[in-house]
What does this fold into?
Amino acid sequence: MTRSFKRLLIAGGAGFIGSHFVRYLRAARSDVEITVLDKLTYAGNLANLVDFEGQAGYRFVHGDICDAELVDSLAAQADAIVNFAAETHVDRSLMDPFAFIETDVRGTAVLCEAARKHDHQAFLLVSTDEVYGEVRQGRSEEDDVFRPRSPYSASKAAGEHIAHAYAASFGLPLLVTRGSNTYGPFQYPEKLIPVLITNAIDDLRLPLYNDGSAVRDYLFVDDHCRGIDQVLHEAPSGSVFNIGTGAETSGLQVAEAVLEIMAKPRSLIEFVADRPGHDYRYALDVARITALGWEPQVTFADGLQRTVRWYQDHPEWWRPLKSGEYWEYYRRNYRPLVS
Ligand code: NAD
Ligand code: TYD
It folds into this structure.
């Protein structure tokens, strides 16, 4: 099946993955008119979208996905919504769960309602592998039950449940992608990889929770965006897709790889107190998206090199972010390992 769109509403398009998705669309589907709706929280950044400012077929609207009136008026001018907008960082969700419940649950519901009212061709919810919860063994398949364990993953799971309810009850043409840990340029320096890289540039400690053994499937952002695009245009309505590489990398392996690329000493690694409720392993079964014809094109070694180089070359992007509120958050989050 193939779908095409004239006008897409991209919610959360000023964040990390959303802005890469806008870049992907401008290059691959230049005829599509794009409206980005973004609240510009601490994680949203117009610098991510500066290349498109003033271009025909692109506009930015500053606003909240929880604002039903605004969302309704923008949905009236679109034929599909892709939702990236969310509070996204697990550690922050432990400090302020309600911000996550508001945006990731209620905001998702507001978008579903607008998409249904305006008879959209598709509503694509960008979800996460974290909805499955920790998987000690085996791999999560799309039909597995949700066992989220952090306020972030529980809010994403609840938002997904609302979207599935809209599909079942009102015929919302829902598509869901559950991507794994994504990395690349323009990622706010609170997630593991940009924290490690920007700290290493400044010879600061590289904090690893507990013993650094927790495993993730690190996915380069361009591969993730191509997967979302493929699902949006080719997947049958109502389908859900895991997107990941199938590889497993521990935090310690990531830190060692960053230090090796940057020729910095291993002594920069610091083991710190564990994240409460830390999920020690996520692993996805990716047979379904593979059958759709998608596969990752960027290896972890290559993607990490490219990402390190980008942060080294773009201090003007990340240095202003690491100030004031950031260091307050940082001090609150990272505590020395108590033995
Ligand atoms: P991000 O934190 O970089 O960006 C989120 C964006 O949403 C920001 O621009 C922010 O301003 C905006 N936003 C937040 N609340 C909003 C609101 N109420 N209204 C409008 N805009 C709002 O996040 P990201 O890493 O780019 O993640 C994008 C999506 O992908 C999220 O839904 C996340 O759950 C999902 N995801 C992320 C990863 C990952 O590893 N980063 C992996 C899988 C899935
Ligand atoms: P993170 O990037 O926050 O993503 P996730 O949403 O998957 O937790 O963390 C990735 C992994 O790295 C996770 O196991 C927690 C760990 N981690 C650290 O060890 N140190 C850090 O400073 C951060 C941010 C994460």
